[in-house]
Amino acid sequence: MVESATARSLEFAATRWLRPLPPAARCIFCGDEAAQAALVAALGLPGSAANCRAVSANGRSLLWLGPDERLVLAPADQRQSLSAAIEAATASHAHSLVDVSYRQVALELHGPTAVRLLNAQCPLELTATAFPVGMCTRTIYAKTEIVLWRTALESFHIEVWRSFAPYLVTLLGDVAKESGA
Amino acid sequence: MSECRGKGGVLINRNLVVNFSFDGRSYSGFAGDTLASALLANGVHLLGRSFKYHRPRGLLAAGSEEPNALVTVVRGNEARSVPNLRATQVEIYAGLVAHSQNRWPSLGFDVGAVNDWLSPLFPAGFYYKTFMWPRFAWHRWYEPRIRAAAGLGRAPGGPDPDSYAQCYAHCDVLVVGAGAGGIAAALAAAGSGARVILCDENGALGGSLLDERANSQGGSDAAIWLRTALTQLAALPNLTLLPRTTAFGYFPHNMLGLCERITDHLATPAAGVPRERLWQVRAREVVLATGAIERPLVFPGNDRPGVMLASAARTYLHRYGVRVGSRVVVLAGCDAAYGVALDLHAGGIGIEAIADVRTGAHLVAPAAIAAARAEKIRVVERATVLGTSGRLRVNSVSLGVVAADGSVSNAGTLPCDALLMSGGFTPSVHLHSQSRGQLQWQADAGVFVPAAAAENERSVGAARGLEGLQQALEDGTQAGLTAAKACGLTPHAYSARIAVQEYSTRGAPGALAQPGARTPAKAFVDWQNDVTTRDLQLAMREGFYSIEHIKRYTTTGMATDQGKTSGLNALAIIAGSSARQVPEVGLTTFRMPYTPVSFGILAGYDRGDQFDPVRRTPMHACAENLGAVFEDVGMWKRAWYFPQRGEDMHQAVARECRAVRTGCGMFDASTLGKIEVVGPGAVEFMNRLYVNSWNGLAVGRSRYGVLLRDDGFVYDDGVVARLADERFHVTTTTGGAARVLGMMEDYRQTEWTDLKVWLTSTTEQWAVIAVQGPRAREVIAPLIEGCDLSAAALPHMAVARGTICGAPMLLFRVSFTGELGFEINVPADYGAAIWEAVRAAGQKYDIVPYGTEAMHVLRAEKGYIIVGQETDGTCTPDDVGLSWAIGKSKPDFVGKRSLSRPAMLASGRKQLVGLLTADPHVLLDEGAQVTATAGQVAPMKLIGHVTSSYRSEALGRSIALAMVVDGRARQGQTLYVPMPGGDLPVQVTAPVFYDPQGARLNG
Fold it and tell me: Which chain A residues touch B683 with a CB distance below 8 Å?
């Protein structure tokens, strides 16, 4: 028996307004409406996600990314069980389930300056009416793609591909420095 | 302070004296002064030298339209020097250091002024006509000298130490310009509940509201209204006020670019505060309250320091308490000039005369003349200007009188120290025009005004040809309410009223009448580019007809001011000289930026290490610890080679190659693109996309796939594994990952909607460690569980799942080296740990980490191509020896039809071959050309080029791959590679140099 390897996730120092989120189970699920309905049932969520909206329950979240594409987030210890449960529940529907737990990392931007920091390099309108709590979308921050999800009025969950994360974190720091955040 | 500073001045604070320097001399001004007003207050009228003739120039204007007074401001050191700033927009601060430009050795005595004496030799098109011969001399002699002589300002030295910010903003209504119309529009829109951004290019808001004469109580109705309005604006929570912010560009869908200057006016900017901020504003509705710019008059000697726009003199008086002279002659091309003369007169400035240059009886307003005469100001009617005198400042003007028959008689010379002119006002339609809005010629006013809008925008007040403050207020109010309504809001009634004496701003563009048919010299149309009436007429005589051609030939309307003061006069002169109407002559494009913007705000945060994202693999730190040298591949940092103590690159690469061929090497292949293609339609999708057939590929097996564009040329390649019936794991080149996924999505979403298939990028999900070499299996076997590594169970191109050191693993038996090889895929978080585990396990086999350079050598020895190195976007699969990959029985795939075009099948295409130099120590240059015979002289007949060239450790000699015309038929022939030192003979071989049977792969 060989010695077990330990997984090491990317690490970032938290600041007053940016918090690295813990590792998570993630998958991309694609399929038609029937398949999506089966997915929602498998995840134990109260309902399906509307366009550009997320639904959450029991630590699991479903983010609408496209007409047939969803991002599923769950606690890291569900990495194995989650995929198996989804595959089992959606087997009778044409679908695609791909584990992307390690493809990306998550950050939480919070506080009264969050919108200003985001709008420095993200072209979306982020007022509470244009981008209300619960809204999510794939967008850009400067030169990197992100998934942006507003979890509270002053709190945003950001998913970014791991190799772009240092660029994003440094850039947010540069922006914060100049705007006195 | 001199007698030039009078009373009044709404913008200056006389309690705060500010010391600054200009061209090394110290001066003082007041807080609130611009560099222009402060210099004028010190009696300095000479501010620059003109671009071409180096003529002494002063201030023409008081705002951003200033074409002459361009200065360099230096803050601390050369790196913080900013050239070509308009002195009219530079706000002074304690310690400001400014320099004039385009003069040597000094502004007062400038050697370049010899150009002025020689000016008859420098007509329009002078360069094109003169520097024709000899041909080679243009690049070597003429152009460098012309550029050195003609530069406008000097680029800063050293990297810019300042930071620049950027942001996006959204609003209901963006109002550009905070004059009467803009402020009224902002108040009306914001009062209706709209989210409003109001920006103005100046530090002080108010526009022409600041230029009204004070009443006996020391204020003016306009100033009082402005004070109240600014208080109201500041109190509105839904309004963002941006002073010192220029709307420089109008982009599609109501996106406007704003440049906010944050620290340039401060003596000691706080640390860390950005110098400027780029605002990218998306507005639902836009109100353009950009005002109008006064036109100069065109007459001989109209460019001497002291010759100035009339409204500028009024601005200097009312805003800064500065008198532009003590004996002033006013040239009136419109009624507004009378208003200026009366204001100056009331301010204690002597008015020698008003010369009314209008000759059409209907143009003259008797009321204005009467008002002037009531103040005992002499008015010369039907006047023209025959010339001026004064070297560094105007000291007299020679007037003429135009008779009814058009003849001009001399009317004497008047002494003066300032000559003010007003040819009427031109609406600032720049932004409207940038937004693709149409323009309409208003013949009675002699101007273009905005017509149909292409975006949700409207112009108000003077910007659309309306006259007077009251009209601007009403128009602005209406526009603000309309804009709010267009945003779905209920307009909230608002009205504003100011009582002021108004004078018409209508004039007639063109040049003033001159005696006889002579065209005077030095009657300037474009101050910034030294373009005269003569230049325009010469251009027309030489056959230039279109305004676009005349502009380029004479340079009128070019450079930093983009013809703000000159454009309409030039059009009118051209129209008059060619018996056309102005609209027939047409308009040149209004280009952004409205005024120059720094490179800094365009670059923003994209500088230094953050210029682009730098992507690092999960094993990057491991490679760093091993002393790797990295190379950039796209955004990725990849380990290039791993030099050990004392090794150079060649030695390190040779050692790494040797290890892979004789023992074992390990390589970080994580950057390869990976895409999962999943769904019931996956096989069909792959069949339609790649040249290969995928039907026969069993689960657990992989195949080398080739992807073409629809033109039939190789686009990408990579190993594709079938993980399940309906699941493929596709790998792409490192640089091609994003574009291949984009191409796949394009076909999936638009062409093949019948297929139930989905694509997910997994590039970053997996860390990939290639273990290659005869001992590879022995190295990894002890670490792996749940997977039989034997050649029988896991042959070349097989794929299996298992665990490695307990981590989930996807194992590929593949080779890009020609040796027994494995590629271990583990979740990215495990990458570093597994890398270290493999390295530890490999110690007893002397495992060696190798980099991309060794990888390139090893694959070249095997003749494996790299897309983008052997291929250049014009190579078919057959050209690079890959026709074996094509599924011959497939009905279709992307690019198939193109492959049967005659040109693709004809002989004479370049084909992949190997080249061996006659001297095994000689290394060919990649990119070198190939000829069939030796001793050719240029132009040679080139039949190919070298694509890859390496020293092969395994073969003990140099090797090269090349694309050569009909190369496969030339095997065994000797060809030549012409190099500076002579032709290098090379022998054509097959492109596989090492283990051509592939026996080593199957170990």
Answer: none
CATH number for the domain harbouring residue A35: 3.30.70.1520
**DSSP secondary-structure letter at B140?**
I
Q: C-alpha dihedral over B917, B920, B926, B931, to 10 degrees?
A: -10
CB–CB contact A7 B612 (8 Å): no
Residues A87 and A50 occupy one common structural domain: yes
| Maximum separation of any 2 CA atoms in chain A, in Å | 57
pLDDT in tens, B16-39: 999 999 999 999 999 999 999 999
d(CA B4, CA B7): 10
Contact at CB, B807 and A5, closer than 8 angstroms: yes
Q: Does residue A121 belong to any structural domain of this protein? A: yes
Q: Count CB atoms within 10 A of the CB of residue B265.
A: 17
Percent of chain B's residues with pLDDT above 70: 98
CA distance B609 to chain A (A): 9
* Tens-digit pLDDT profile for residues B364-397: 678 899 999 999 999 999 999 999 999 999 999 9
Q: Which of B258, B602, B610 to mutate to test the interface with A (most CBs of A within 10 A)?
A: B610
Contact B489, B193 (CB under 8 A): yes
Is residue A59 assigned to a domain? yes
**Does B280 contact chain A (CB < 8 Å)?**
yes
- ipTM of the complex model: 0.97
pTM of the model: 0.93
**Pairwise CB contact (< 8 Å): A99 & B765:** yes
Chain A contacts of B838, Cβ < 8 Å? none
Name the residue facing A171 among B274, B605, B806 (closest C-beta): B605
Residue ranges of domains in chain B, CATH in brackets: 13-123 (3.10.20.440), 164-292+427-486 (3.50.50.60), 296-423+505-518 (3.50.50.60), 617-671+766-875 (3.30.1360.120), 673-762 (3.30.70.1400), 907-1002 (2.40.30.110)
- Domain final residue pick, A99, A126, A141: A99
- Burial status of residue B404 (CB atoms within 10 A of its CB: 0-12, 13-18, 19 or more): exposed
